[in-house]
Design goal:
heterodimer, A: about 150 residues, alpha+beta, Heat Shock Protein 90, about 30% helix, globular, B: about 110 residues, alpha/beta, 4 helices, 5 strands, about 35% strand
Chain lengths: ~150, ~110
């Protein structure tokens, strides 16, 4: 990672009371990057939901575990034209994610729970989850003017 | 987030203000289930006019309220949804599942 590309780096604890601070930071950052207002809201929502999933599922609601949020510029080329984007990396040292739960659930079932992943997928162009050396990493990318979806697994 | 409770005849109005997120949604859930399941109030109305943000755990609390109202034969009504709250319910494909009104007058007159 080139340090000059880093826009924001936060080291947080898994405390739900801090989610409002993360939302505030993400709203300002996405505005600054030139995302339209609905996308500022949806990217902020995706990060909030991803953090909430880490707190609930990876850390089982423990409030004092480490979460690192890194936002950096990224770029892709579409039809020969460069397209600016925001890459968000969320890392934690919690329990590994259950791949079955990472798939989400059908929305025609009216029941509580399971909506967060759906919000993240709907909001972002890329969503990739990896685990290595007991660290979970969620990589989210949103391009400022996406022309085609390149959603990952 | 704060919740104020008003009781008018056989209706409870819960005025919620602030953000409904992972930190605060348990309080919303508790207030809804208290009115619907414990107090058996025939009509519970949730005022979301001052709510700036709702996450998936907040939506889950609303769904629990809806299920409790169906179990107890009560009505569970929402009003004053911001565009952000509507957006989240739309995204969850739940906008048509809830009984929603624009304002309190309409909600109480229904």
């Amino acid at each position: 990672m080139k340090h000059r590309d880093i826009l924001l780096k936060l080291e947080l604890r898994s405390n739900p009371d801090l989610l409002c601070a993360v939302r505030g930071a993400m709203e300002r950052l996405t505005e600054k990057m030139g995302f339209p207002e609905p996308e500022c809201r949806s990217v902020t929502r995706a990060v909030d939901e991803a953090m909430a999933n880490i707190i609930r599922h990876a850390y089982g609601d423990q409030r004092d575990q480490p979460i690192e949020l890194t936002c950096r510029r990224t770029q892709r080329v579409v039809n020969g034209e460069p397209e600016e984007g925001l890459e968000i990396l969320l890392t934690d040292q919690g329990a590994p994610a259950d791949p079955a739960k990472m798939r989400g659930r059908p929305l025609d079932e009216i029941r509580p729970g399971g909506l967060g992943l759906h919000y993240i997928r709907e909001s972002m162009d890329v969503m990739e989850f990896t685990r290595s050396d007991a660290t979970n990493q969620l990589r989210l990318v949103k391009y400022v003017q996406p022309r085609a979806s390149t959603r990952g697994s | 987030m704060q919740i104020a409770v008003r009781r008018i005849d056989k209706t409870t109005i819960l005025d919620v203000s602030g953000d409904i997120d992972l930190a605060s949604s348990p309080e919303v859930r508790k207030a809804l289930l208290r009115e619907l399941r414990v107090n058996r109030i025939p009509r519970v109305v949730l005022n979301l006019k001052e709510v700036r943000y709702i996450d998936s755990s907040g939506v889950a609390s609303l769904v629990e309220g809806l299920k409790a109202s169906r179990d107890t034969g009560s009505r569970f009504i929402l009003f004053g949804l911001s565009s952000i709250a509507r957006e989240v319910l739309q995204l969850s494909r739940l906008l048509k599942v809830f009984e929603i009104y624009d304002n309190e007058e309409q909600a109480l007159g229904s």
